[in-house]
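Quick illustration, no need to memorize.
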Amino acid sequence: LASAAGWRAYRADSLAAARDSFREAARLCATDLDAVVGLGYVAFRDGDLPLADSLFRTALRRDPASADGWDGLARTAWRAGDRTTAVDAARHAVALDPRNAHARALLTSTPEGRTEHLDDDLRNVESILERAAATLDLTRPVAVLLLGVVIFLRDDEDPYGVVRRLMDALPSGS
């Protein structure tokens, strides 16, 4: 009941009452994940990002399947300027709860979370690289997955050469 009271207070913008209710819930039941996540959101709203980060990470250590924990971590990391952690956490949040509008927005409205589909012939290496450069930072290593594609190139089309041209154009570590 204390966690439920905390969320009611939180939604009513009564952060002090929410904090008290979540603390009471944690005192009554040290394993109450909802209380830890709630305290994380209160800390986030208070602007105490280190505390919010710590609380969300604690919640995720207890339950890595906590969509709210991942969402809170994504919000906190984003506000702290850690885009990599924010996008990673948002991906987890959306995977666990596809209806999570905030995490979905973070993944689709930022360069860090942008996704593109490229439909081209693998033999058009220059075109592929040009179009990929519009989304990817090709000065940094990227993963290249050619699953079920190279097998369709005939030997006379030099499949090894096509892949070599693609990889040679990418930075070391790709």
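The chain has nine helices and no strands.
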